[in-house]
Design a protein that fits this description.
The complex is a heterodimer of chains A (114) and B (111). Chain A has 114 residues and is mainly β. Chain A contains no helices and eleven strands. Chain A has strands at 4-6, 10-13, 19-25, 31-38, 42-49, 56-57, 64-70, 73-78, 87-94, 104-105, 109-113. With 111 residues, chain B is mainly β. The chains are: A mainly beta (114), B mainly beta (111).
């Protein structure tokens, strides 16, 4: 089974802190994604990556950066956390060149910024 | 820009009834996915539909895809309480691996 894990289920940070959210997948997937989910707004893509050291902006990249130094790990970084970044963050991965490119999701990190 | 719309957004059903959730999308695609999300949990893949006319069934849920109409349906047969969840459809872009998600349909099945 595909397994996507995220470093924390719940996280509380203060405004201005630098925050790291980690995501690891164990199925050798090329593609990895970071979404945030907010009530009434659905899932919105923040950043994604097709390969190691490659990154692409999604629909709402402002205030975020990412790092992909190893194939299995994709990190989301909030350089200076703000209260409007309080949200559920979901990581996903998918295989390239496989029919369907189905995305598999991690359990999510609920981040609260005070 | 690809847009995906689901309706209804909220659905309250009685056990034993049938209903359909609709997913419309704005540009050409032949990849459509249905996910389920329980409260406080992540998304679980339900169906992957990859061609016009594709139909897949699992238990009381059946999903279909009409790429000409840019429409997918998720049909619920004889609903049971365990089906209460939020259901998302997601559409794949014509190139690349990005998905665009609908707003989700919050389904509540009442005894």
């Amino acid at each position: 089974d595909v397994k996507v894990t995220q470093s924390s289920r719940y996280l509380v940070k203060r405004t201005g802190e630098k925050v790291f959210l980690e995501c690891v997948q164990d199925m050798d997937h090329e593609n990895m994604f970071w979404y945030r989910q907010d009530p009434g707004l659905g899932l919105r893509l923040i950043y994604f990556s097709y390969d190691v050291k490659m990154k692409e902006k999604g629909d709402i990249p402002e205030g975020y950066s990412v790092s992909r130094e190893k194939k299995e790990r994709f990190s989301l970084i909030l350089e200076s956390a703000s209260t409007n970044q309080t949200s559920m963050y979901l990581c996903a991965s998918s295989a390239a060149g496989v029919e369907g490119n189905e995305q598999f999701f991690g359990p999510g990190t609920r981040l609260t910024v005070l | 820009e690809l847009k995906v719309e689901q309706n209804p957004l909220f659905l309250s059903m009685q056990e034993g009834k049938n209903y359909t959730i609709y997913c419309n999308y704005s540009t050409t695609s032949d990849r459509l996915y249905w996910y389920r999300q329980d409260p406080g949990k992540s998304l679980e893949s339900l169906f992957v539909l990859l061609s016009n006319g594709a139909v897949k069934q699992e238990g009381r849920l059946m999903a279909s895809l009409d790429t000409k109409a840019r429409l997918s349906t998720l049909h619920i047969t004889a609903a049971v309480h365990d089906l209460s969840a939020t259901y998302f459809c997601a559409v794949g872009e014509t190139s690349g691996s990005r998905l665009t998600f609908g707003e989700g349909t919050q389904l509540t099945v009442n005894p």
